[in-house]
Each structure stands twice: as structure tokens, then as C-alpha cells.
Amino acid sequence: MRMRLQHALLETGVAAGVLLEIEDGRITSARVDGQSRTFNGDPSPEHVRDPRLAGETGTTPGLTLPGFANCHSHAFHRALRGRTQQERGSFWTWREQMYAVAADLTPDTYFELARDTYAEMRATGITAVGEFHYLHHQPDGTPYDDPNEMGKALLAAADDAGIRIRLLDTCYLAAGFGRPPEGVQVRYSDGDAHAWAERVAAFDDPRVGAAIHSVRAVPRDQLPVVVEAARGLPLHVHVSEQVAENEACLAATGLTPTQLLAEAGALGAGTTAVHATHLTDDDIRLLGESRTNVCFCPTTERDLADGIGPARRLHDAGATLTLGSDSHAVIDMVEEMRAVEMHERLVTQQRGHWSALELLAAATYDGHRSLGFDDAGRIAPGQRADLVTIDLESIRTRGAGASAETAVFAATAADVLPPRAAR
Ligand SMILES: [Zn+2]
């Protein structure tokens, strides 16, 4: 299979006139094509813009990027969109509304909700998702006949929507430090970390990864059990999204959440710290020196009034940035990329903390890698042909140029073109 791309982001940057050879869903060759250069290189703008002409020559118009990796998703939170914006409150009042949705879901309704959420992701250029899944059991806490029925509903939803998934099966055992699960949390808990590990092992699907919900939800003595069971799998964990979590952790253990995870051996290049919002200097050092990934979810973090995390400082310390749409208040990876830079501008009153290429790496290759998909996220030989094309002639992008900066700072999810058959 052969694809001609008007513009594409290669490892060397944005190039015009790119010819891809694809076999069995993998790129076997990616090169700048002399023949299509005559079409794309100079020609009159009308020539390039005419979609009929582009169609006749078999060239995909626009700027083609590696597909986006959405590294932090709670599919069922999509049900809250537009419904949680009327009252004052905080993360914790929002959580009550979220728990009300969690209380009612069945495997069937979870499947339907996730299928529609993943379809929205797919339509906006997301080709891989990390689903942080903790809604395991029946409303009274009893396991389903198949204890992995809810997780399997998510895998089926991803298949239905045509999106690659890493199901981050989440250990969630406590309401807080020294507090058993409360209310709907009985649906999340397996009792202890060994029982969680046994259930995950029984899953027996290569798409399953692991997660620690947070240091408030997994007791200190259980953390190493999860870390050991997750060896070789991507391991994700919510870290310091809220100041109250930090305070409770310090009071109970004398350590910050990051220090507690370091003590348990949970940090490293296979681990992703989600949010990483309220960190000390020592936390930043620990995450950076261990080469831990950090997953920022800026549209959710601002929706929930979480705060703004130190993205650039983490990067400079050695951590790798990835991105997620988390609660799906919006699903727009372009906005997630852009927001990282914009939030830093508001905090520092300075522009230009992140280049467009760095943000694209976070949304593509680095994100895939944090989900355990090392062979996706670049347009290069050997990589999976998961692609997304940005319309360069929309009302927002017209005249902005075929550049990484246009993709990150001018486009939106609405500029993602529908997938086009390769020729
Ligand atoms: Zn989350």
C-alpha cells in the first residue's frame, strides 16, 4: 500500500511531498518523493488547494502527523460533560458527581459509553488510549461472574471504535490513609494488592497494563506488591493532583506522595506519574533522575481547578512529558499540547517554554512509549502506520503554513481530517 502526503512530520521535521510505503499496517518506507514534489513544491496555491486535484493525484492534502496517544482516560467521565458546570465547588465536589455516575454503570452501559468516547477520540486523531480503569466490581462490591467483565467491556469498546488501547488495570483499596473503601469505592476494591494482582493475571490479554490509583488509595505496605506484579508492564499512578492529598500523605507517612512511591520502587522509565501538579523541589528531582514519565492533562486540570504543574522543570530534570484528556471535559489533543505552553506563560509571564516539536513528541511518540507501544508515534520505517492529518485550509489554519507551529498553535481537533484510504 502506498500513500502520498502533501506534508508530513518526519523525524527530521515537516517535509513536503512524502511517499509512504505501508505493509500490514506498518511503515516500510518514508521518503520525500520527487514526483509529488512537482505537485507540492511550488505550485500555485490554487493548485495545492484544489481537493479534487489532490484526489486525482492520490495525494492526501494537509499536514500528516503520527496519530496521537491519549495517555490518561477515564472513559465514563465523558457522561459528566456539560453537567458539572453550574455550581461552585472544587475537585472534591466534582468527585461526588462523578461517583454518582460510577454507581450506576453496568458492563453494557460502560461499553456503550466507552465506545462513544473512543469514537470521539478516533475522530479527533487519537489512535491510542491509556484507559485508567478502576470500576471493577458490582455495585455491592461482589465480583462479576467473570471478575474482569468491566475491563473486557472497555477492550471491546476500543475494538469497536478502532482505537489501540492499553487497559491500565488500577489497584484501588482505600478511601484514604487508614480508611477502608467508602460508598461506591467498594466497586473499585479487590480487598488487597495480592487479590488485585491475581485478578489482573487472570485477565491474560496483552493489552493490559497496571496502575496504582494514588497513594491515598493503596496503603504503603501494599505498594511494593503492585510494583512487583506490574514489572514489565506500563505502570501509571495519579500523583499530587491535589494539595489535600499531599497534606494527608505527609501527615500519615512523613513523606510526599512522590517520596512514598520512590520508597516503594515505583518510579522509573516504565512508570507514568499522572498530573504531577503540586510538587516539591525534591519530588521534581526524584521524578527526573528516575526518568519517570509525567502525564499532564491540562484541560481537565483547569476544569477541576487543580492547579498548574511544573511541566518544564520536570522536563529539564529528566522526566518525559506525555498528555491525556482524563475526564474528557473536552477531547482535543491539540488543545492539550497548546495548553501546556499557555499555562506556563500565565505562570511565568514569559513566552516560548515549549517548542511545537517538543509538544508534538509528547502527544505522539513519548505518549505511545509510556503506554508500552514502542513501535508507534513516528512516521518512520518499522513504525505502525497510525496517522492523523490536519487540514491546512480550514477557516482556522488557512494561511498559517505547513508547520509544526500551525498544528499546535492554530489548529483544533475540528481540523483533523477523516481518515483517508491509502492508495
Ligand atoms: Zn485520572
From the alpha-carbon coordinates, what is the Rg to the nearest angstrom? 22 Å
Q: How many separate domains? A: 2
Sheet with most strands: strand arrangement: 5-6-7-8-9-10-11-12
Mean pLDDT across every amino acid position:
92
- The CATH topology assignment of the largest domain is TIM Barrel
Q: How many DSSP E strands?
A: 13
What's the end-to-end separation, in Å?
6 Å
| Helix-strand makeup class | alpha/beta
In words, what does this structure look like?
This protein folds into 2 domains: 104 residues, Roll (Urease, subunit C, domain 1); 303 residues, Alpha-Beta Barrel (TIM Barrel). Helices cover 37% and strands 20% of the residues. The protein is built from 17 helices and 13 strands. The strands form 2 sheets. An 8-stranded parallel beta sheet has the order 5-6-7-8-9-10-11-12. With 423 residues, it is α/β, with parallel strands linked by helices. The chain starts with a strand and ends in a 14-residue tail after the last helix. The structure holds zinc ion.
